[in-house]
Design goal:
This protein has 242 residues and is mostly helical. The protein has two domains: 142 residues, Phycobilisome linker domain (serine acetyltransferase, domain 1); 54 residues, no CATH class. The protein has 15 helices and no strands. Helix 4 runs antiparallel to helix 8, helix 7 packs across helix 8 and helix 13 crosses helix 15. The mean pLDDT is 82.
Length: 242
Amino acid sequence: MNNLTPVTVNRRSSQEERQFALTQIYRQVLERQPYESERQMMAQLEKDFLKDKIGVRRFLKEFGCSDIYLDAFYYPSSNVKFLDICFKHFMGRAVLNHEEMRFYSDVLAKKGVHSLITTILDSEEYRKAFGCFTVPYPREKACYESPNAFVQSRLLNDEHVGQRGWAVPTMYWRQLGLNCSGGVCRHPEVDEMERAASSNQLLSLSTEALLELLRGSSSIKAREVIASLSPTQRAELRQALR
């Protein structure tokens, strides 16, 4: 988890300091800087922030409900994964437990995404952690309710957007023993069964078919294929390649 110095603005902040805070907001909440077309959509909101008409929390309420944010994170995600993402962006941590997941899932399902964003940003925890003028950042709490809560927050805050898919939140894929690192959540036993099936299929291929398969594979994939072959098949391939 990154150890960041909190960025806070106030009435005495210079234009450069507020511009830096804006950059940090996008880094935390959008996980990148906006494209030029998105900048145009956000022009008035950015202007109000830079001129000290609104603070960080008010900016986040508007931005979290914008098409830019929703297109990037809400529409590609399941509801529970979107909650995961929102907690990362606005609270700097993962969802702690099933009770918290259920509470915010009900807000999202019954009142909609705008109410969800508002509920998070109006929460007592958010006000104590960030107030109205501090940019949210990945947090390390002094005390976690469980080792899992600690690990989940670390994993989530270090995760690049979409890295572990758009369906299963961190809490669930860890509890279910899934491997989501490739963007799609799978159980290790399924992967092992597929590898075994693939190995059996390779054993039944002719030397000519194996050669054709290797020609169309990347060097890494080719090494994996060769490693799965029987000694007899390897000897036949060496003979065919001479």
